Every structure is written in C-alpha cells, then in structure tokens.
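DUF1570 domain-containing protein, pasting as requested.
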Amino acid sequence: ELWRHDQQIARFQGEKGVFELVTLNHLIPQKLPLINNHHVIESDYHDALDSLNIKWNDENIRTWVELFAGEVDSTVKRIRGMYLRYNYVRFTFKELPHEEKQAFVLGFPEGKKIFFLFRFKKGLSRSEVDNAIWSLLKTVLITGKRSVQVSKARDFQSYRTNVREKKSSKFGATRKRVTSEIKNLKDWWYVETKNYVIKSNLTYKNRDLALLIQKDIEIMRKAYTAFFPPIKEIDEVSVVAVFKSREEYQQYIPANLSWSGGVWMPDRKELVISPNYIGNRKGSNAEMLPTVYHEALHQYLFYALDYVTSPMWFNEGHAMLFETCKIDRTRKTVVVRENAQRMRVLEPLIKNNRLNLEEVMSLSPNEFYQEDNLEKNYAVSWALVYFFRKAGHLYKDRNYENVCDVILQELIKTRDWQKAAMTGMATINMKELNNDFLNFWTSKSKRRIAANYGLFDRQGNRAK
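Structure tokens follow.
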C-alpha cells in the first residue's frame, strides 16, 4: 500500500473505465521487519527506500509493472515516437472476464519514467479503446518544471493565501499529491488556500469564477465548522475542480448527473464545477456560487463526520441552507437567507397541507432521490433545517433549536444515520412539529423575525 501510494500521481474513473498515472520510482523494498507478518512501520519503509539505487531496464520495468498491475501476456514492445515525442514501452495483460487492461511506460530525456494504466470495461470496440488511450496520452504533459506552473498559477490568484498553517503530516502529503497531479496535466493550474486546492483549466480571460471561489470557500468553511466541528482533525486537503467547458465537465462526471452545474464526488474526493457562460459573465459566475456553497457543505461533512452518512434531510437541508447565503467578504461573515427556489415548491405543499414531516425525516438515500418526489424532498428538507435553526427559539419548550445538535451527537456516537434520525425525532412531539411548521411558514411576522435572527456573530462564530 505504501509502495503504490507513494508513486501514484493520479487516478481517474469514467464511464469507459479507469485511468491511472504513476511514476516509476523504485521496486518494493525487500527484507523489511514485519509486524504480524503483514505490516511494516512507515519509517522503516522509507529508510529502506533511501538505500535503493535502481537502474531501469526492460526486465525490472516488467517486474515493476506486474507488481502494480498484474501478469503481462507478452514480451516488452518498445516503440519510439509513434504518437508522442518520448520513447515508450507498451504492455498488454492476461485476459480478464470484466475488463481489458493496457499499459505504457514512457521514458523521458531526464531519466523519469511514467506508467499509464488503462482498465476498460468489456464491450468497447477496438477503435473506442484506441481513441481513448491516445487522446489521454497526448493530453498528459509532464514538464517537470515546477517554477513554470507556479508562476502561471499566481496569475490566477485573487490574493496570496498562507497555506503554511501547521497541519498533520498526512494532510501535507495529500496536498502534495494533489498539486503534483495537477502539475502534470496540460493547461491546468491551481491555487491553494488553508484547507483547499482549487484546480482549473480556465483561461486567464475566464478565470473570474475560480477567483470568486477562492475568496469565498474559506469563509464558508468557517461557517460549516461552526455548526459541525470535525469529529477529529481533518487530515486531507479538499479539492475543487473548475472546468473551462461544459462539455469537459459532462465527460468527467457520471452520465446521470450531466444536468448538474456542480457535484461533490466522494469516490474521487473532488468537488467539480461546470462553467456557466449564459448571458453576462459576471452574472453567470454569481449564479454558480450557490452550487459551490451547496456542494462544498457535502464535501465538508464527508470529512468532518469521518465519512459517516447523515440523514438525507439533514445533509441536503443544510446544503440548501448555505447555498443562498450572503457573504460579507470584508468582514468574512455569512448571513443565511430564505431560499426562494425551495419556497416556490414549498408554498403549494403548505397551502394544500400535503406534508408528512416524519416521512421525509426518515427517508433513505434511495428513497430521497426518487425522481417523482425529489423536488418536494429538497424543499421540505431545506424548510425543516431553516425552521429548526432560525425559528426554533420562537416556539418555547418545544426543543426545536436543539434537534440538529442532538442528531449530530448521535451520529458521532453511533455512526448510524437511522438511529440519529430517530433520536432527533424522539426529542420532539412530531404532531406539534407539523402544526408549528405550518404556523411558521404561513406567518409573515414570524418569518420576518427568523430572517433577522443571525446564526453567526461578528467574528463568524456560531451565535450563542
């Protein structure tokens, strides 16, 4: 595991399969002291690496490839400059029932060797496989010139960010891995903040969206943290990817999400954002920010709750609570406002008394995302969280203002979203909740009081 992790540059997954990009640094060190016959101490592993001095040839390159990717089925095929300006070696593998594997090792003039592994799903035509391979090989440009990439990135920064705050060694390692991946991709650049790496292939002319995200993301992070202190120190950098074209974005994400403007992808550990160039660019960028705030909350909860799934209404409701907030970039504070988009869906439900709050608060992920009820579930989830957070204090002795905190504590304790949801509901009277919920959303005066109720103090901390 250490050997693979410490050489891997990038891993991408799409509809056709998986692509991995790896640097050949060394073979697996031998004769390391083992713990329980399986594990090694990381410091022993790195000490052993220091003593290795490998000179690559066809034989040990093949050994390395088989250690990483499995048994190859042919002798080494060396090809010179056929598609790229570098020499490379091509490998094919024993036939597998569910996928086809091909690999290349590219040799660079300075001695660096890079491994490209393609794992395609069965059923693709030969032309589909070949086109995918050569398009990816040609787009990956490894210059090894960090100074060029960093100076280019500075042109895209809205301000210089101090990223040297003391973090765990694992956090630093993930930041280094992410930035190393980006440096190896043609036309991509990155900027760093305290907790994020924002990467993009936007041109300088169209960089405004990335600049806005850089300005806002840490302010939002502080607001998220105020309500959801991490269970333990977050030891991974958070990644935001902003694409220069809608087409690239849609090719990168799963097909069933092609309608979206942005999405948190936990399998890739990336928040990915599509550009929006409809109409005025300034207005288009402003329209994308609510999506960023929404998906960034999902991303933050993933890490803050130590990968624990929370109740759907709780997770989506808080994401929508933050998506329409107003940011004061001077004071670095957040004001939570009503969500007009969700209100348009909620109003007829309230008018016709078509609400079952207990049902929504108990929905599983599959049930929540059923297409027929999705917009209703979103609207009711937002309205519940807004009601508990902003209006709970208006209903004395109901305990509404504590429901979300009770759920959070139960999640930490049990790591079970269903138990957390049930515990939260058990602290209140659900019949009273239905009545009070309708009372609030049909009362202009109470909604006005809630609108003026601040969730954060002037320092951006949670208001007492």
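Note for the archive: Residues 79-85, 141-152 have pLDDT under 50 and may be disordered.
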